[in-house]
Specification:
Elements (H helix, E strand, L loop, with lengths): L1 H19 L10 H17 L5 E6 L4 E6 L5 H17 L12 E2 L8 E2 L1 E7 L2 E7 L3 E6 L2 E9 L4 H14 L6
Antiparallel strand pairs: 1-2, 1-8, 3-4, 5-6, 7-8
Helix pairs in contact: 2-4
């Protein structure tokens, strides 16, 4: 019981320490650029016969664009947010963080895997991340402007390919 109390105190201390740090200025992610990224990600997945959800957030982890293709659920957007949290907590595209390889759940069939989870503080709030591929940082001039996350394809690699297609569509506007 003392361990739980100590862990909770540590998390609260970390949240306070992070909250006191001034946030560095981030480049802006214009709405029209965020929309183009999201629409292109959906278009790429549709071209591959996939229906997905796409979430684009700014560097402060505030949603700019949410798209859900027909037949997708809110759960896809929730999972997309968890992937975004992973990017913001690690600085890596999701699925690439050290130790982020999928691990098999005991008793699960090989098609069902659990991905590395993480917890941390973002903007003074405790958040959970899922280290599954599909979320990619949006960089402007070498600085983080936002993150795009795709969820719903049958594999994290396909989610990521669609997210990268969205960023590639606006690459000339991200310099």
């Amino acid at each position: 019981m003392k361990t739980i109390g100590f862990s909770a105190a540590l998390v609260l201390a970390a949240a306070t320490a992070f909250a006191q740090q001034p946030a560095p200025a981030s480049p802006q992610l214009p709405l029209d650029v965020a929309e183009m990224i999201a629409h292109e990600a959906v278009a790429k997945c549709r071209a591959d016969g996939l229906k997905v959800s796409v979430l684009v957030v700014d560097a402060a982890n505030v949603a700019k664009v949410e798209l859900r293709d027909e037949g997708t659920s809110q759960t896809n957007l929730d999972f997309a947010q968890a992937k975004i949290n992973s990017v913001l907590l690690t600085g890596f595209p999701s699925g690439l963080a050290p130790g982020g390889a999928p691990v098999m759940v005991k008793g699960a069939t090989p098609q069902k895997s659990a991905y590395g989870g993480m917890i941390g503080v973002l903007g003074g709030k405790l958040v959970a991340g899922i280290d599954a591929g599909g979320a990619v940082p949006i960089m402007v001039g070498g600085a983080l402007a936002g993150v795009v996350s795709v969820s719903g394809a049958p594999s994290p690699a396909k989610d990521r390919a669609c997210a990268e297609a969205g960023i590639a569509k606006v690459a000339d506007r991200l310099k």
